[in-house]
Input
Amino acid sequence: MKIRGVFIEDTFAEAFTMRVARIVITARSTRWVRAAASKLTGFATSVIGCKVEAGVERELPASETPDGRPGTSVLLMTMGKDDLAKRLIERIGQTVLTCPTTACYDGLPDAPDRVGVGSALRFFGDGFQMSKVMAGVRYWRIPVMEGEFLVQEKFGMLKGVGGGNFLILARTADAALEAAEAASDAMAAQPGTILPFPGGVVRSGSKVGSRRIKSMIASTNDAYCPTLRAVTKSALPEGVNSVLEIVVNGVDAPSIATSMRAGVDAACRAGVIAISAGNYGGKLGPHHFHLREIMTGVPS
Amino acid sequence: MTDGTVARLRDPLLQRADFADVFLGPWPSLALRELAERPVYLESDGPVPFGEMFELKGEPNGRIRFIGDLAMADRLGAGMTEGEVVVESNLGNEAGLALAGGTIVIEGDVGPRAGAAPLGFKRGMTGGELIVRGSTGPGAGAAMRRGLLVVGKRAGDQTGIGMIAGTVVVFGAAGTDSGLWSKRGTVVALGRITPPPTYVYACTYQPVHLRLLLTRLAARYGLPVRPRHLKGFYRRYSGDMAELGKGEIMTWAAK
Output
């Protein structure tokens, strides 16, 4: 199968079930919304090293936020329920509570699983905090030097999917980067998904474990490193000199499939030789995103 | 969802009537016939079935709309725990007395002690939302523990007196001694108010929770929230210092 001359390999991306929370941040201006969201989602590329994966889902106009101010929607994902509660408390407490003019709301109001966030952060108020219940939802008003920080007591939690991916195999590093940028731009607009890596792109795709150090969980994906073509069992077709990976997480599998379709389509451009995907033989992750099936809508 | 039940007053109400028993307990699950059998106590004539005073039509789905002048109807929605009651006219005394849940919307004015504690009791509203688009008499929201009371026009004297917690929003002027002896309650005054002398000015700021609350009141009930209410500043007074002092009166200020 080829799209605009780019070969689509007959393979699949293997993804995992994760826990996801959607956090809505509002502030007086977009400047402070972005400042809070940028810190909240910082150092959150992979659970392997960061304990959490996070990214901005989309910016919200004032008409779509609970308090009528500019906002943003952030997805935060972990492998387990307990982890998610800890990370939410840590991150919202350190990055949103601290940011001028912000307020923080649950973006999954219908999720039956709830984790306490405001109920923990309220203790920062040292007894001066106040709660307000509006339409059956409890909020905490935590006094801060600037005024007050408003945070919802509980946040919803769903089972999401993490680790959707595809690889861009290109003739040059410039071509790979241009294709990855186009893919990232196309995928950024997809609701229900985030791209947790810098700019949505990963240059250091990994394989499970290590050839030399048993304690390492992951190490470089040598089969896709162009510089190792001569010294390892390379998976690179002839002519490929650079590979970039796009990783996508989402609230459910269909959102990821839609996002991958947009991304792969955008990445199929001059200088790209093939599109592949990362998997572990299908034995580790329950979600398999077959590239050709995604691009045609027909099971391969 | 259907529009629910419509209760149309058959004959003008010429004597005071006590509706305290009509919406007690899980009334939304009652059949229309069962609801019609609930008693209303007339001041002179004694108890009569609700269905004799009102023509009831529609589906009993937890929502009821009253048509007809209910200025003599007292304690409507007292102790209610669920459902939605809409009154298209003025309403009498002690509307939503000790309301515990659900919503009561009154298009006109109400008499004294709306949402208050029954006389001799410590707690008024413990939940729910009581929305009065008109004015309220004295003592509205007295001793309320939780919930929301909104007054669309003028609130009488001693509104929210002895509040334990909960929120009162007044769009018009609020009477004297509003918020007096409050422990943790919030009185939001978008119109004129004179905080009791036992309140202490704290600061002027833009509270986000009021944006949230007022945005919801505009969307849910169509209340006259103006951009200046959302974007403006509020003077915060802490009190009542003669009590716990964890309550507040927030008065709208242009800047």
About this structure: Chain B has a mean pLDDT of 96. Chain B touches chain A through 19 residues (CB under 8 Å). The radius of gyration of chain B is 18 Å. DSSP finds four helices and 16 strands in chain B.
